[in-house]
Amino acid sequence: MDLISDLLTRIRNGQMASLNTVKAPSSKLLKKVLDVLCDEGYINSYDVISNNNIEELNISLKYSSGRAVINKISRVSKPGKRVYSSIKSLGKYYNGLGILILSTSKGVMSDYNACLQKVGGEVLCVVY
User: Fold this and answer.
1) I need a surface site. Which of 26, 68, 69, 72 has the fewest CB within 10 A?
2) Is-contact 76 125, C-beta < 8 A?
3) What CATH number did the domain enclosing 89 receive?
4) Could you give the percent of the chain with pLDDT greater than 90?
């Protein structure tokens, strides 16, 4: 099962239903992806909740004037087809309004931070 795709689908469905929070299973990679989304201002916050030694993520979604902040969120690199990008071939997503989330050798980060640190990596997802 692809946990990142599951997380993105839960966020997308939660915003379409105008929910304040959504829950997702927890993993280290998902926490790092959520850290990037939180730092870039696409979600409010997230909390880790433990129930009977099973961790879940409680994600607080962000809205502006009654509309979801995230217009589009989708997976790029999939388990069947990995997509890697060098720093030179990283383009601007939606003319700089959106971000790419990358998994690099220096951790999970946005495309802007990857350009600053001059590292490329696997393109996990795009957010606009």
Assistant:
1) 72
2) yes
3) 3.30.1370.30
4) 88
How would DSSP label each residue in 14-62?
HHHTT-SEEEEE--HHHHHHHHHHHHTTSEEEEEEEEETTEEEEEEEE-
Which helix or strand (DSSP H or E) is residue 127 part of? strand 121-127
Contact 22, 45 (CB under 8 A): no
The Cα 43–Cα 63 span in angstroms is 8
Count of domains for the chain: 1
For the segment 28-46, what is each residue's pLDDT rounded down to a tens digit? 999 999 999 999 999 999 9
Tokens of 65: 């004037």
Whether 127 contacts 101, CB under 8 Å: yes
Average pLDDT score over residue span 81-108: 89
pTM over cut 0.85 = yes
Residue 25's domain comprises 3-127
C-alpha to C-alpha distance for 38 and 112, rounded to whole angstroms: 15
Question: CB–CB of 54/23 below 8 Å?
Answer: no
